[in-house]
Prior knowledge:
Helix content is 40%, strand content 16%.
Amino acid sequence: xxxxxxxxxxxxxxxxxxxxxxxxxxxxxxxxxxxxxxxxxxxxxxxxxxxxxxxxxxxxxxxxxxxxxxxxxxxxxxxxxxxxxxxxxxxxxxxxxxxxxxxxxxxxxxxxxxxxxxxxxxxxxxxxxxxxxxxxxxxxxxxxxxxxxxxxxxxxxxxxxxxxxxxxxxxxxxxxxxxxxxxxxxxxxxxxxxxxxxxxxxxxxxxxxxxxxxxxxxxxxxxxxxxxxxxxxxxxxxxxxxxxxxxxxxxxxxxxxxxxxxxxxxxxxxxxxxxxxxxxxxxxxxxxxxxxxxxxxxxxxxxxxxxxxxxxxxxxxxxxxxxxxxxxxxxxxxxxxxxxxxxxxxxxxxxxxxxxxxxxxxxxxxxxxxxxxxxxxxxxxxxxxxxxxxxxxxxxxxxxxxxxxxxxxxxxxxxxxxxxxxxxxxxxxxxxxxxxxxxxxxxxxxxxxxxxxxxxxxxxxxxxxxxxxxxxxxxxxxxxxxxxxxxxxx
Length: 490
C-alpha cells in the first residue's frame, strides 16, 4: 500500500492531522498547478480555510526515462534549451514544491507572512489536436484568457509569464504564439517570458509548483532571473512581429504591482494557468510602532528557565524583527503550564526584561473572562488612532461601522479629524460604540473570547451586540437614534 500514490498523499493528512479534502492528482506535467487551482477553489467556496498544494517528482526507477527516450521527448545533452533553435527535448529534473494557501482576508487577520496573491486561475483541455502529445495553441490561449478574466485584469496588466517551455521544436512556437494571441494586444512594454526548466530541468508532475515558486521569489527580489541556453532564437517564432522578449540577463522587474502568469501544460492535454500578484504590505506609520508580547512556556520551571536563557542569547544576535520573533514564539509553539510573558518595544528591551522574568504556573482550570464596556464620558480625541493605523482587524471593524453610519455623519472625521463634534452626545455615543466594538473584534482575533459581557449605559448596547442580541447594523441604528434624542434634551 505504501507504493500507492493516493495512500502517500493520505499519509500527509494523517501525519499532520488534517481532515479536509485530500486528493492525488495526475494530469502529468500540469498536476501541481492544477492542485493550486483546485485548492483556491476550495478556499473560495469555504470548503477549506487553509490548503497545501504542490507536487513531487523523483527519479527512482529507470523505466520512465527509457520510455521518454523512446518517445524522443528528452534532450540528448540533458538540458532544456527552451525557445532556442537547438531545442531538442527537455532534461529531467527532480524536486518537491508545496505552497500554503489561505484566503487573503484570513492571512492578513492572522498576521501571516504573505509572499504573493493568487489573483485568478483556469484549467481546460486541448481536446482534439494533431496527436495525443501535440499541444493545442488555441486551447492554451483560451485558458490564459480565462485566468485573466478570473483575475479581473486586462492582458496588458501582466508583465511576465513563466512559460511551460519544455524546449521542443513543436511545443515552443505553439506556446509563444498562444501567448501573443492571449496577452499581446496593445502593449506599451513587451511581455517578458522565461522557463525555470532551463535552470533545474523539467520536474514533470511538480513542474507547475516549481514555476510558481520561481515567480514568487522573483517578485520578492524584484528581478527576473536570466533564461538560460538561449543562443539562437527559434526561427519558427516570428520574434520581430511579437511584443515578447526573453531576458537572458538578470533584469529589474519594474511596474507596480508586479503581476505574472504561470503556465503548465500536461502531456495528458490538461492545461492550467495561474495569475500571481505581489503582495504590497501597507506601510506602518512612523512613530506608531506598538509594543509586542513575547510568551514562552515549558513543562517544568527548570525547562522554562533553560528556554528563557536560550532566547536571551538568541535576542542578542538575531536580525529578525521584534514582530516576527514574538509572533513565531506565541503562535508556533505549544503552550505548557509554566509560563513567562513580557512586553517590549524592541529586541533589546525584550532581552533585558527576559533576564529578570519570573515563571508562573497557570491554574488547571482557566478563569472566566469578562468584557466590561464603558459609557459616555470616556471619549477623547484620536482614541484608537494607533490601533486603526497598525491593526488590520481593528481598522476593518471601524470602517464597517463608518459605512453603516455614512448617511448620518463621517465617523472617521469625528474620531480622527480633530472634530469638536466628538464631545456632542449625538456623535459621542456612536463613536464610543464603534471603538468598543472594534476593540472586541481585535481581542477576539487574538483568541481572547469573553465568557460574559457587561456594560454601563451606552456600554450596555455594545455588550448586547457582542452577545448577539442584535446585529451591528441594528445596534448602530438604535444607538444613533438614542444619541440624537438625548442631544435634543434641554
